[in-house]
Amino acid sequence: MSIRAEQLTWKIGGKTVLDTVSLEAAPGEMLGLLGPNGSGKTSLLRLLAGLKPPHSGRVMLEREDVRSISRQSIARRVAFVEQHATTNANLKVIDVVKLGRFPHRSMFSGWSPADEQAVEDALEKAGMTGKRDDYWHSLSGGEKQRVHIARALAQTPKELLLDEPTNHLDIQHQIGLLKLVSGLSVTSIIALHDLNHAAMFCDRLVVLRQGRVVASGHPGDVLTEDLLKDVFSVEARVELSAHHARPHIHYLR
Ligand SMILES: Nc1ncnc2c1ncn2[C@@H]1O[C@H](COP(=O)(O)OP(=O)(O)OP(=O)(O)O)[C@@H](O)[C@H]1O
Question: Which controlled-vocabulary keywords does the entry list (predicted)?
């Protein structure tokens, strides 16, 4: 299912955080959202998730404006892994992941085999099956991150929004997570700081600077030496990798 931002503008405290931002993630696509600190990535993801309304513009899920879709219907199809997500410290891993099934249940429905299956699959994909009975407060930062990803997967979303999900992960789990997301048959939008990882795994990229889209397209077209200098203020050389045929950035000292 596609997710589209049309001319989104969002302001807070007299500051325009997002300025007429448009983007679209096509069905099944993994769209990377890049930009320096404070460029508006988190704000944009929150608008896309329907958590706050734009001042102007609109968010479309498929052909429907999110404002005309009920909160429960949005929660059934859009999963959002926030950057500093937390949960009740007294819950076990399995209980946190089960929360992902909440939007799919009605007042009268019990816990179904489909719910069970979704939770087991999610734990497995996030590599957290072995920690299912551990308490949230006993987990490391990276494990907590993976539980949140498992919870999002348990939601069996059509659209998956991830805000710097590799933040606390070791390199094995960073690559594992990006591989996992790129292999899912969901539409995903993922904010990333690691430009090489974005180049390796994302189908397309959108770059924000001060709340505006300054570049979008295939990684090879977007990640140019000029863009790295102009937007990220770094000197770098970009080569096509002989290993994965995507751009590879060498930062210069
Ligand atoms: N609730 C808020 N109140 C005040 N300012 C805000 C609020 N939310 C966002 N901003 C401002 O909007 C700008 C964009 O913030 P946002 O968190 O969206 O950027 P980001 O690209 O996700 O940054 P980072 O890479 O550091 O996570 C920042 O200058 C931030 O201070």
Answer: ATP-binding, Nucleotide-binding, Transport
3-251 has CATH 3.40.50.300 classification:
yes
The contacts found for 133-137 with CB under 8 angstroms, 24 or more apart, are: 133/92, 133/93, 133/94, 134/92, 134/93, 135/89, 135/90, 135/91, 135/92, 135/93, 136/87, 136/88, 136/89, 136/90, 136/91, 136/92, 136/93, 136/96, 137/89, 137/90
**Alpha carbon of 17 to ligand 1 centroid (Å):** 7
Q: What is the pLDDT of residues 122-179, one digit of tens each?
A: 999 999 999 999 999 899 888 888 999 999 999 999 999 999 999 888 999 899 899 9
**How do the domains of the chain map onto residue ranges?**
3-251
Q: Is the CB of 174 under 6 A from ligand 1?
A: no
ipTM (interface predicted TM): 0.97
Q: Please tell me if the CB atom of residue 12 comes closer than 6 angstroms to any atom of ligand 1.
A: yes
> What digits encode the pLDDT tens for the residues 107-124?
667 888 889 999 999 999
